Amino acid sequence: MKITSFVGSVLSKYPRLLKLALNLRLKIWRLRVVLQSRRWADNPDVNNLYWVSPNKIEDALIFRKIGEYNKYKDRGKVIGGNWDRKRVKFTEFGARVLKGFDDRFIHGMSWEDTELYKFSLDCISKGFTIWNCRNKSELDARCKHLDYLFHTIKVNGYKCQKEISEQKGGIYRDEDEVTVRIGRDGVLLFEDGQHRLAIAKLLQLDKIPVKITVRHSKWYSFRREILDYAKANGGKIYQPITHPDLANIPSAYSDERFDLIRAHLPMSRGTILDIGASWGYFCHKFEEIGFDCYAIESDAQAKYFLEKLKIAEDRKFRVIYSSIFDYHDKNDFDVVLALNVFHHFTKTEGTFLKLIELLKRLNVKFMFFQAELPDSPQMQGAYRNFIPNEFVQFILDNSSLNEAIYIGQTDDRRPIYRLQRL
Q: What is the domain extent for residue 33?
């Protein structure tokens, strides 16, 4: 008998002592994982729980060998190589499960009539273990548990394991969340927890909790670049990043502007042009709710981060690396975002005249305009230094827009207006 088995058999006779031993083992594991992750500077807390949309988990990793991954042992690691290239769409990876769950939970079929159950029972009859089931009785018990799981999530919402864990079920029960790895491109790659993710997708849930186990070394390097950028700019980036692994990096602006604009935007579909898109925050947010977005940015460094983050989030918006004055491919948009950008064009006579030309050729229904304050140090010596109301009137006088509505201001007192064409 192995020593661990012998110790386990002895402790099982003393429940309180067994509980203490299991808790100690869990604490030792957590400490080991934390210490392991510190090999990589700035690696986030390995025990973080990330609430993400199930729609963000579209790809699944393919592990071809037993023991090729261990979601507990590998947590917090940064690993290079080509492991992240072995991926397929989750709809392909979990096709049998997704179909079986749809048959059972949406169309009301009995488990025994689903192809998923028949396939699982056939595997068991051939000596395989599936879903930790070795016989029909265990398979039926598993199906009963899935019924309970689906009903509970549908009625009470998706809860993290810590909220629903019981003492039985192993010392890692609280840690047994859906897990993902992050590939070199920043894409979330499904690793474990197929049944819960399938249920979440079937129920079209907004968010579920996941744990991140492994990051690819190339993604880790890109993450470090963003952190270094923040450190060089007062510890903050300009706007939030929507990627879950970067969402906690401090930013000068919060979601406040997006929430304010969305609340005053009388449409849920259409085209949006973001002038001076920076790293693409607004395009990420508006594409997510159904808009067709165009991000125009002339700064090379901003474009680098913009394109990397677009790939990481698998976004479809167009990136235009150009000055807005040189972009003539499209002039008709439902919405234009001009947030803290037009004042840059009033600093010299040349750019001021180009701004007038731009306003005259744009054909838009709505423009959200945020004005710089005239007492800002950067406006000293500007060719034209409007107060906000004057700037709004200047835009109305030189564009197809003819009405302006003040909708609020940000914490830095910069006002935001909705300009529209009646």
A: 1-38
Query: Residue 285 and residue 305: Cα distance in Å, rounded?
Result: 16
pLDDT of residue 32: 60
Indicate the pLDDT class of residue 24, thresholds 50, 70 and 90: confident
224-231 long-range contacts, CB within 8 A, separation 24+:
224/41, 224/42, 225/305, 226/305, 227/42, 229/305
Give yes or no for a contact between 238 and 305, defined as CB atoms under 8 angstroms apart.
no
Query: Residue 218 — very low, low, confident or very high, per pLDDT cuts 50/70/90?
Result: very high
Strands 77-79 and 208-216: parallel
Instruction: Count how many domains the chain has.
Output: 3
CATH of the domain at 415: 3.40.50.150
pLDDT of 69 higher than 80:
no
Burial (CB count within 10 angstroms: exposed 0-12, middle 13-18, buried 19+), residue 279:
buried
Q: Which two tokens stand for residue 301?
A: 């460094």
Give the span between the Cα atoms of 13 and 205, in whole angstroms: 43
Q: What does pTM read for this prediction?
A: 0.84
Is residue 47 classed as helix, strand or coil in its secondary structure?
coil
Tell me the C-alpha distance between 178 and 270, whole Å.
35
Tokens of 331: 């002039």
Whether 150 maps to a domain, the answer reads yes
Rounded distance, CA 24 to CA 171, Å?
10
* Token pair for 208: 């579920």
